[in-house]
Amino acid sequence: MSLFDWFADRRKGQSTGKITQEPEEGDGLWSKCPECGLLVYVKDLKANASVCAGCGHHHRIDSEERIALIADQGSFEALNEALEPTDPLSFKDRRFYADRLRESQAATGLRDGVVTGLCRVDGLALALAVMDFRFMGGSMGSVVGEKITRLVEEATARHLPLLIVCASGGARMQEGMLSLMQMAKISGALERHREAELLYVPLLTHPTTGGVTASFAMLGDLILAEPKALIGFAGRRVIEQTLREKLPDNFQTAEYLQDHGFVDTIVPRNQLRSTLTNLLRLHGCKPKELTSA
User: Fold this and answer.
1) Domain segments of the chain as ranges
2) Of 34, 66, 144, 181, which has the highest C-beta tally within 10 A?
């Protein structure tokens, strides 16, 4: 069977209901762009930083892939890996919160929704936090807040620049007020980092919403965003009902926010390392010893 016949059979099977698996999943070798429909090898897609070669759509990537794209090979040193969440409110909605945590941990291999550590970018020292949307929608609970706060404090103590890659649905409702407290805690640590005259850059990826947007995601010296990322606090429907007016179609996109002064610049993923290097050098950042004391 030719490759053309193989694709034809798959499309025919989908139209008659014989094949239920989505074409972008397929046999794990192919990926279909949700924007333009281009089919590419997963290997080729990852080689292009998971950016569609046809339309430039930025596929969502996990924390491991993100760190590999940003940090010099082998330079990332994770911090506070042992921290993991508890269930302080014994919360239950349709399921127990404890069960959701165990499921997310098993599926992602992470203890919670952020990975923090120290690394180098083109030899320059950097404190790096990467939120992972796979873990309960990247929601900000007590552990996420604590790990980011500790990283900011470590960056301040070592006089390091800081990059936080944001990808979150907002505060984690299963932890109630404890989750909301993280907004103030991280913001306070960032203020001390600013008073030390150190650089902080948030990178807003798809999506960055809720309490994350309302706190550390918008407190950067320079705010970067990926193309077409969804960025906002409340959802479109809530805002439209509150304002009682129709919002533009591109409302809460990175491009709209850049036009209105909330985002400084939009950086395609394959240009991120060079952009970071230039920013770090521009702000006088230099190589430093990263080994833990």
Assistant:
1) 61-282
2) 144
* The pLDDT value given to residue 292: 52
Distance CA 70, CA 277 (A): 10
Tokens 């906002």 found at: 232
With 0-12 / 13-18 / 19 or more C-beta atoms within 10 angstroms meaning exposed / middle / buried, residue 184 is exposed
CATH number of 61-282: 3.90.226.10
pLDDT of residue 287: 81
Helix extents (H) in the chain: 3-16, 42-47, 63-70, 97-108, 142-158, 176-195, 210-213, 236-243, 254-259, 272-282
Name the pairing type of β-strands 30-32 and 162-168: unpaired
Placement of tokens 């980011």 in the chain: 148
One DSSP character per residue, 280-291 reads HHHTT------S
Instruction: Calculate the alpha carbon distances from 169 to 90, 210, 233, 267, 280 in Å.
Output: 22, 6, 9, 21, 29
